[in-house]
Design goal:
545 residues, alpha/beta, Rossmann fold, Nucleotidyltransferase, domain 5, nine-stranded mixed sheet, eight-stranded mixed sheet, 17 helices, 26 strands, 33% helix, disordered C terminus
């Protein structure tokens, strides 16, 4: 039986309506990525994100995606913007979408690259993404920051203020009313600008808000709206009733550095077989999806585990690979961590060619140590353990000089403040062997020979020390030594706080200490680490003055 023209027209209209109503159907029909038709092959975790987004936005109006890098979220967001404008235009509705990035250059690069490729690779998109029209119907060439989709407008804007005029790079959150706003990498934009941009939805019937970003720290950036969402995680099917959530069970869920297995029931895990389970309240004001590289089929899991095992930038691993906010620990140096480095030996009465760290105050808190020799078969990138010989105090500059001679200290890093002139004078007595430390430098220490100074970022220095202790790279005298126990208590005083810096209110972690507890030995240990690593490694930036 052949269909009549009326029947064919009805079926075509039904197909068009299904495409308009379904983001997933629309993407499958019209999107090409890397010159291939859009597919969820090996991306099963994205199915719900495409299939359920329209309903989430219609009912809750807000969707949050907290993610690790390279998980397909940005292509989803671009498809969402194009689908919304296209489907609403076909329904006879005038709509505007603003796609925000942290900076104007980010926005223009995205429009030129991702958006440009999406249009070039799809005949359908080429037919609906047209040149702009000025008033009176005059046709204007399409620009990088503004596209027309069936007459509905898609803007690409930057969030961070530059002090320039609009169109030259200034923040543009107060110039265009919108029906949907998308914030890509919102953790790297000022939070008050995000909230200001949301106000542009005030007169819209839709008021759709979408945020996607890597997190940075707890209660900053994307983690703020994430806490207000239903917080869905991808649970892989196993023998457990709720399945296995890799983010909750890492690293135990990685059985042999390559394969995945549930730590509870032991069953192997298939990254393509799972379901989204809310960890937050079901009636949350926003929908939320968490994307993590652990279940991506396009990331080398063995390489992920090697990165995890290295003592290094744990924040980058946590943010970029796990897609989680990094807090280190509320107590980054608990007493148990410091005392776990202790050996069954007492303090050494002397030494040769050693290093020291000194915190200057009412008394001088001192750590003296040396690098242990690595075995001949150690890997090239292996880090030598630090063997601590002595922990204690000096009552004067003279006593500190006695320690220099007794332990044959060849390199000292010490506080530049509060006794800057006295510290400089002490450094002159030992040319090339004493460096005064200033906090506030870059992540990598900068050594200035002429001025006998080292400039270091305090947070990075303590993070590195903590990573080394977690890796078991420190050797302390017995926990029965009174000053060892006291030093551990000084470490316990440290805690991590979140602060905002600069006019863009960039969130940063920093170390602080309880007002009632001293932390002098902790700083002295950090200085010893700098001196010990400097004595053996030459990759630090050296400034000749």
């Amino acid at each position: 039986m052949s269909l009549t023209a009326t029947q064919r027209a009805a079926l075509e209209e039904l197909a068009r309506r299904r495409t308009r109503d379904s983001l997933l159907t629309w993407a499958r029909a019209y999107r090409y990525i890397n010159r291939r038709r859009f597919s969820l092959d090996r991306h099963e975790y994205l199915r719900a994100l495409y299939a359920e987004t329209p309903e989430i936005l219609r009912t809750r109006r807000r969707l949050v995606v907290m993610k690790s890098t390279q998980m397909g979220a940005t292509e989803w967001a671009l498809s969402l913007a194009l689908w919304m404008l296209d489907s609403q235009a076909q329904a006879g509705m005038d709509r505007t979408c603003i796609y925000y990035f942290p900076t104007r250059s980010d926005a223009l690069d995205f429009s030129d690259d991702r958006m440009g490729k999406a249009i070039r690779q799809s005949a359908y998109l080429r037919s609906i993404v047209s040149e702009q029209q000025a008033e009176g119907g005059q046709r204007l060439p399409a620009s990088k920051h503004l596209r027309s989709v069936r007459g509905n407008m898609l803007y690409f804007r930057g969030m961070i203020r530059s002090g320039q005029t609009e169109g030259e790079g200034a923040t543009s959150t107060q110039t265009v009313d919108a029906d949907m706003v998308i914030f890509d990498e919102s953790s790297y934009a000022p939070r008050d600008e995000v909230e200001e941009a949301i106000k542009r939805l005030g007169h819209s019937e839709l008021k759709w808000v979408v945020e996607l970003s890597r997190p940075i720290f707890p209660r900053t950036g994307i983690d703020i709206p994430w806490r207000e969402s239903d917080q869905r995680y991808w649970h892989l099917d196993c023998g457990c009733a709720e399945g296995c959530c890799l983010e909750d069970t890492f690293p135990a869920c990685v059985a042999d550095d390559v394969s995945l297995a549930c730590p509870e029931c032991g069953r192997p895990l298939d990254t393509q077989a799972g379901r989204w389970v809310p960890h937050g309240p079901y009636d949350a004001r926003a929908g939320g999806f968490h994307l993590c590289q652990l279940y991506s089929e396009f990331h080398d899991r063995a390489e992920v585990m090697r990165d995890f095992a290295k003592p290094g930038d744990k924040q980058k691993f946590t943010n970029h690979v796990l897609g989680m906010p990094y807090s280190g620990s509320a107590k980054p140096f608990p007493t148990e961590l410091v005392l776990s480095q202790c050996q069954d030996r007492g303090m050494a009465g002397g030494g040769t060619r050693t290093c020291a760290g000194v915190d200057v105050g009412a008394v001088w808190h001192v750590w003296i140590g040396e690098l242990e020799a690595l075995p001949d078969d150690a890997p090239e990138d292996a880090m030598a353990p630090v063997r601590v010989l002595w922990i204690g105090t000096a009552e004067s500059w003279t006593e500190l000089g006695d320690l220099m001679r007794l332990y044959d200290i060849r390199l000292v890093v010490m506080d530049a403040m509060p006794e800057r002139n006295a510290a400089k004078d002490f450094a002159k007595r030992y040319p090339g062997r004493v460096y005064c430390a200033f906090y506030g430098g870059t992540e990598r220490p900068r050594w200035v020979r002429k001025d006998r100074e080292v400039h270091v970022d305090r947070t990075s220095a303590f993070d590195a020390l903590r990573d080394e202790m977690l890796a078991g790279l420190w050797r302390l005298p017995s926990a029965g030594e009174p000053t060892v126990r006291e030093a551990a208590e000084h470490f316990d005083a440290l805690h991590i706080i979140q602060q905002e810096y600069g006019r863009n209110k960039e969130p940063r972690r920093t170390y602080d200490h309880a007002d009632s507890q001293p932390d002098h030995y902790a700083h002295a240990a950090s200085y010893l680490r700098l001196a010990a690593r400097r004595s053996a490694v030459t990759h630090f930036e050296i400034a000749s003055g």
